């Protein structure tokens, strides 16, 4: 039993509000990932849930109980820190047992729980060692073990893998995924700015922006396929989505847009209202959704190749943008191709892979919803 | 004015003499062993010799002064301790035997032990507590500066300040000591504090605690800041309260620093002299080793043999702590 409810949560340092209007409901057993650019307040939000940071506005409920003023140790949470935060003067065993010793649990019970956690994390051979005699990955496992021993209702992770090297990161990520599976009732909240971690681990991703608000919250694929606004569209996916200014030419069930007034126009499979005709908008398409135009396809865009990067399984094309001064258009074409600099290519994308955002950068698919 | 001028003159002459020595000796060395000698072989050889000699040339004055003012007196003290009062006759271990049965020495040793336990413990304890508490309040830095200030006062100066604190005036006249003023205000009888045997030791120790707390506080405060904040947060989540965090998480992490602070103060305490000298001069059972040494060495005609013997004992007590202290300090700075 551990559902969380955040209502109008707000965090202010003095007069600067770093987080505002945070509304979020998390169900028991869910794996939630907070992502967002550096400094957007992911850690702050997590620490507010943990009780390490005061909540300056709104309500935090765990299992229907208001937790704003409850001390961290009484919230039923455990936290894994980016820097591991192991007690350097205690052995691995004592590190994991500390919380239970403070709670005056019996020796047998402590021993049982610590042994079990050590077993799950393959830490048994290291129990008598000090943290400084462990590798980074082992230290992080001890930190996770310490959290497991607390038997929390909610697990909090703050970028737990960012201090590990690439290979270890993958291995530990998989371990965390397994841990999550073996504890189906435990809610987990995980902060990262690694997209792969977010996409692979999350049941739902919460995207925060530097404005200090939740931009979108949903399943990873939903965010990828149907982003609510330009920020989310460009934040999820790598390389980021190509987004360019355009004009609405025709409205209706489908919308017809063009990069230039009177220039080549194409359709986007989103409905629009007549009042939007002639208005500026933003057209978006993911690099991996672009392909070379073949017979029968509606051409999207014809332009000059500027840079070619062959990566083996894909070829990245950096192309001339629709307007002077805009970022290069990137296309990710599967396989190896021999494009030349200066060559003209015609690109297209499937109907439902084309995105359109209005002047406020809201996706047409989302206008009027919610 | 005249003093100032002569002091300034001495400084200038001293600095110039140093410059002249280093520059001159270096020049001379290059002259005697020129690198551009007749044959290339000779030149290389000269270069090697000059290379070997140069460090000694530059270190020479410092080594000489150190030897003259530190090593020689230490060795000579040991020698003197085997001679009679005017150093004319070898007496073997007589002085040490005398010391063993001497009441004054026993009392000094006992008092020194009291000092050794009380002063480092109290200074470190107060320093630690103050360092931990002042980290969290906005006026913490002001408080720290105030507490650190006694460090800048000489022991004699501090003793004079505290003499006024403990000052006692005979019956009938107004009490000017703050302690007696407080006691009177609370309805008690004024006391001649520093003449009350046994307890007067503690009144003297408080002076040193007052001075050394600042030192302990500054070092420990830096150490406390080095503790990763996350370990404290993790302990908070683990359910530890403030006192538990302090003793189970923070103190163990700075244990080495505490030990260094403790031993550094211990060494100061072993050598304590000025405070006792200025406050009681060892009367009313407050004698300590250093003052006792001074007594025998210079008072009542002076007994160099016995004085030196006490000096040797102090040295023997200090050296092991010093070695331990230096070892752990260098080990710490290497970051193990
Ligand atoms: N004590 C503080 N006083 C004022 N501002 C603060 C304080 N702590 C954090 N902030 C601000 O709050 C914002 C959010 O910080 P936070 O650490 O939550 O970011 P983050 O999303 O975790 O970033 P990162 O990905 O780099 O870890 C930042 O802009 C930071 O400058
Ligand atoms: Mg962070």
TrEMBL record, chain A:
The keyword Endoplasmic reticulum does not apply. Its main location: membrane. InterPro entries: AAA+_ATPase, ABC_transporter-like_ATP-bd, ABC_transporter-like_CS, ABC_transpr_MalK-like, ABC_transpr_MalK/UgpC-like, Mo/tungstate-bd_C_term_dom, NA-bd_OB-fold, P-loop_NTPase. GO terms for molecular function: ABC-type maltose transporter activity; ATP binding; ATP hydrolysis activity. It is a peripheral membrane protein. The keyword Transport applies. Keywords: ATP-binding, Nucleotide-binding, Transport. GO terms for cellular component: ATP-binding cassette (ABC) transporter complex, substrate-binding subunit-containing; maltose transport complex. It is found in: Cell inner membrane. Residues 4-236 form the ABC transporter domain. Belongs to the ABC transporter superfamily. This is Alpha-glucoside transport system ATP-binding protein.
TrEMBL record, chain B:
Belongs to the binding-protein-dependent transport system permease family. The keyword Cytoplasm does not apply. The chain crosses the membrane at residues 6-24, 56-75, 113-134, 146-165, 202-224, 304-326. It is found in: Cell membrane. GO terms for cellular component: plasma membrane. PANTHER family: ABC TRANSPORTER PERMEASE PROTEIN, OSMOPROTECTIVE COMPOUNDS UPTAKE PERMEASE PROTEIN GGTC. It comes from the Bacteria. SUPFAM superfamilies: MalF N-terminal region-like (SSF160964), MetI-like (SSF161098). Residues 109-325 form the ABC transmembrane type-1 domain. Keywords: Cell membrane, Membrane, Transmembrane, Transmembrane helix, Transport. InterPro entries: ABC_transporter_permease, MetI-like, MetI-like_sf. It is a multi-pass membrane protein. One of its GO terms (biological process) is transmembrane transport. This is Alpha-glucoside transport system permease protein.
């Amino acid at each position: 039993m551990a559902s969380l409810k955040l209502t109008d949560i707000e965090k202010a340092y003095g007069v600067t509000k770093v987080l505002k209007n945070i509304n979020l409901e998390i169900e028991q057993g869910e794996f939630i990932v907070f992502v967002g650019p550096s400094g957007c307040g992911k850690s702050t939000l997590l620490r507010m849930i943990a009780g390490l940071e005061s909540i300056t506005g709104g309500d935090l409920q765990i299992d229907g109980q208001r937790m704003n003023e409850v001390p961290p140790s009484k919230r039923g949470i455990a936290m894994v820190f980016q820097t591991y935060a192991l007690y350097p003067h205690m052995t691995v065993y004592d590190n994991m047992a500390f919380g239970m010793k403070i709670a005056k649990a019996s020796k047998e019970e402590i021993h049982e729980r610590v042994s079990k956690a050590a077993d799950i994390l393959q830490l048994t051979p290291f129990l008598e060692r000090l943290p400084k005699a462990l590798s980074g990955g082992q230290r992080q496992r001890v930190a996770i073990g310490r959290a497991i021993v607390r038997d929390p209702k909610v697990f909090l992770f703050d970028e737990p893998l960012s201090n590990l090297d690439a290979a270890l990161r993958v291995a530990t990520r998989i371990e965390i995924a397994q841990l999550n599976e073996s504890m189906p009732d435990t809610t987990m909240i995980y902060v990262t700015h690694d997209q792969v971690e977010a996409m692979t681990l999350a049941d739902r991703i919460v995207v925060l922006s530097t404005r200090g608000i939740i931009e979108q919250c949903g399943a990873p694929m939903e965010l990828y396929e149907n982003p609510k606004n330009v920020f989310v569209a460009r934040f999820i996916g790598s390389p980021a989505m190509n987004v360019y200014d355009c004009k609405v030419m025709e409205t209706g069930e489908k919308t017809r847009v063009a990069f230039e007034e009177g220039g080549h126009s194409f359709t986007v499979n989103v409905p629009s209202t007549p009042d939007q005709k002639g208005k500026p908008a933003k057209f978006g398409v993911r690099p991996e959704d672009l392909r070379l135009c073949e017979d029968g396809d509606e051409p999207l865009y014809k332009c000059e190749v500027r840079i070619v990067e062959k990566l083996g399984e894909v070829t990245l094309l950096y192309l001339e943008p629709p307007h002077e001064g805009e970022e290069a258009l990137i296309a990710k074409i599967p396989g190896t191709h021999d494009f030349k600099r200066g060559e003209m290519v015609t690109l297209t994308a499937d109907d439902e892979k084309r995105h359109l955002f209005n002047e406020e950068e809201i996706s047409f698919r989302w206008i009027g919803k919610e | 004015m005249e003093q100032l001028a002569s002091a300034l003159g001495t400084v200038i002459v001293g600095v110039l003499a140093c410059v002249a020595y280093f520059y001159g000796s270096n020049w001379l060395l290059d002259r005697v062993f020129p690198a551009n000698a007749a044959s290339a072989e000779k030149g290389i050889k000269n270069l090697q010799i000059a290379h070997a000699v140069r460090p000694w040339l530059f270190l020479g004055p410092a080594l000489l002064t150190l030897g003259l003012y530190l090593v020689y007196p230490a060795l000579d003290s040991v020698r003197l301790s085997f001679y009679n009062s005017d150093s004319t006759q070898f007496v073997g271990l007589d002085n040490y035997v005398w010391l063993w049965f001497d009441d004054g020495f026993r009392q000094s040793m006992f008092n020194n032990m009291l000092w050794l336990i009380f002063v480092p413990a109290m200074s470190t304890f107060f320093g630690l507590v103050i360092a931990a508490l002042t980290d969290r309040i906005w006026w913490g830095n002001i408080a720290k500066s105030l507490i650190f200030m006694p460090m800048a006062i000489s022991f004699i100066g501090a003793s004079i300040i505290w003499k006024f604190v403990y000052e006692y005036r005979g019956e009938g006249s107004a009490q000017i000591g703050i302690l007696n003023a407080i006691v009177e205000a609370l309805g008690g009888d004024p006391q001649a504090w520093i003449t009350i045997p046994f307890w007067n030791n503690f009144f003297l120790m408080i002076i040193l605690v007052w001075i050394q707390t600042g030192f302990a506080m500054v070092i420990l405060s830096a150490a406390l800041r080095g503790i990763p904040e996350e370990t404290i947060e993790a302990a908070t989540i683990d359910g530890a309260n403030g006192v538990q965090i302090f003793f189970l998480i923070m103190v163990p992490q700075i244990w080495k620093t505490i030990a260094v602070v403790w031993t550094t103060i211990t060494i100061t305490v072993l050598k304590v002299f000025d405070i006792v000298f200025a406050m009681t001069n060892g009367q009313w059972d407050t004698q300590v080793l250093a003052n006792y040494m001074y007594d025998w060495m210079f008072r009542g005609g002076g007994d160099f043999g016995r004085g030196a013997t006490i000096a040797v004992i102090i040295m023997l007590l200090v050296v092991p702590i010093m070695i331990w202290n230096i070892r752990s300090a260098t080990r710490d700075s290497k970051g193990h």
